[in-house]
Design goal:
Enolase-like_N, 3-stranded antiparallel sheet, Enolase-like, domain 1, alpha/beta, TIM Barrel, 15 strands
């Protein structure tokens, strides 16, 4: 089967681009946005709606496969590619990239994905968002041609098995939205609330006492309205603010996390991004020291690395440094989804917790593709996406997971031929 034609259509992500460097400098909050100048190149304002590009592959038999080019909210910082602006890439897409796709035989996912992920235009790799969208579309196309789910394609080409049970999902929410928290509790989300901190001076008290108060509130609400036997894990994304607050004084950070763990009882607590280094080496050293001292102090708070892990090389370095309990494999940051697959499998092989992450900035299609990768690679848990609403992301992901598991099981017991899920 060949690709007979290619279309590129601009679209809308589920969230925004945010100039995180400007936010961390203390720009004045103005509702959802901020007052003051931008800091990161190519931003026109500190908060701006993010755009996407859909890669639409029309196959010889008329079937249509697609993937979405999108990047993360905090683009252009911590070693990431610049903010993805479709207008800067359309000429390349409609020219060179379309020429590489049009007329191509689609026989397997892995080889073609690796080719596009490593392709260089004038000596530079394609933007991560472009590589992300193209490889999604290729996986979708291979699944349509083979009349199988995308999960089955990944499992076959990477010699894994497809999970027969749902992968736990970490919902996302805002610090100041108690009704959102309640909705996630009523829906029995596996991990929550994934609310996040961006600026220590604006959001944390002197000793981060309000962090423990917030975590205690979450635990109290679980007990108040959660079903009997419901035991979610509590996850908070600190965005490096504990390091900022305590000037990277690791004993002080560990003591703070010890208080937070007490506040979370009887539920387990995970903390994402307690510190952030200015370079990868500094980041790994800081994370490693926090982890070592947490263990020495008997504080049971696993930590999640989510910065300076933008590439397979970054993730391998983090694993080698034994710097974290989990790594967030932030899918758009890794470019081609082939890298995401390799990253999850590498973490599992080397005893590192695998958090299949991503961005609020994604789309319905990239979220569905993520579900199939999760089913085929079986990370410890994955993030709810796209957007920060929670309900919509859970609907998209739980339904895609449920019908995929059901279809694969139905087929395995001989009740169905090779039906498509497109």
């Amino acid at each position: 089967m060949k690709i007979s034609d290619v279309i590129f259509a601009t679209g809308q992500s589920a969230y925004f681009h945010i100039d995180f460097a400007a936010v961390r400098l203390g720009r004045v909050v103005d509702g959802f946005t901020y007052k003051g100048p931008v800091t990161t190149p190519h931003f026109s304002s500190i908060v701006e709606p993010a755009k996407t590009v859909s890669v639409v592959l029309i196959l010889d038999d008329g079937q249509v496969a697609f993937g979405d080019c999108t990047d993360v909210v905090y683009s252009g910082v911590y070693g990431r590619d610049p903010i993805f602006l479709p207008s800067m890439h359309m000429d390349l897409l409609n020219g060179e990239v379309a020429g590489m796709l049009r007329g191509r035989d689609i026989t397997s996912f892995k080889a073609i994905a690796e080719e596009f992920d490593s392709h260089r235009h004038r000596g530079t790799k394609l933007h991560i968002a472009v590589r992300y969208g193209i490889t999604q579309a290729i996986l979708h196309a291979v699944s349509l041609i083979g009349r199988e789910t995308m999960a089955e394609v990944v499992a076959r080409e990477y010699a894994t098995g497809v999970s027969t049970v749902p992968i736990p999902i970490l919902s996302t929410g805002e610090l100041d939205d108690p009704k959102h928290l309640d909705r996630m509790l009523l829906k029995r989300v596996d991990l929550l609330p994934h609310s996040y901190y961006q600026n220590a001076q604006q959001q944390l008290t002197a000793g981060a006492e309000n962090l423990s108060e917030y975590i205690r509130y979450v635990a109290t609400r679980i007990l108040a309205i959660g079903d009997t036997g419901y035991q979610p894990r509590i996850v908070v994304d600190m965005g490096g603010t504990l390091g900022d607050l305590f000037n990277n004084n690791v004993p002080a950070i560990v003591a703070c996390l010890g208080r937070a763990a007490e506040a979370a009882k009887p539920f387990d607590l995970l903390i994402e991004g307690p510190v952030t280094g200015a370079t990868r080496d500094e980041h790994l050293a800081l994370f490693h020291e926090v982890r070592v001292q947490l263990r020495a102090a008997g504080v049971n708070v696993p930590i999640i690395a989510d910065e300076w892990c933008n590439t397979l090389d970054d993730i391998r370095a983090l694993v080698a440094a034994d710097a974290s309990d989990f790594v967030q494999i932030k899918m758009p940051d890794l470019g081609g989804i082939n890298n995401t697959i390799e990253a999850v499998l590498y973490c599992k092989e080397h005893g590192m917790g695998a958090f299949l992450g991503g961005s609020y900035n994604e789309t319905d299609q990239s979220a569905r593709v993520s579900i199939h990768i999760a089913l085929a690679t079986q990370p410890d848990f994955m993030v709810a996406k796209p957007g920060r609403g929670g309900d919509e992301a859970l609907m998209i992901q739980r339904n895609e997971m449920s019908r995929s598991i059901a279809l694969i099981h139905h087929r395995s017991i001989g009740n169905l031929g090779r039906g498509r899920m497109g």
